[in-house]
Sequence to fold (63 residues):
Amino acid sequence: MTTPNADLTQAWVSQNGPSGHILSSRRRENAVVSNGVLRLVARKERRDGQEWTAGSVWTRRAF
Fold:
């Protein structure tokens, strides 16, 4: 069971787009919440000038 996108934004801030210092393009669709567990997916696909895409998030919770 995948949690709707709105549920992901309650706990995390998703990053999206290319980055000069990271070797993958960050994509929102690569951050998936299923059964309350966040999964960051890496895919070998060319986007935004990068060879890979990956999920990337920041937590809203302070530790």
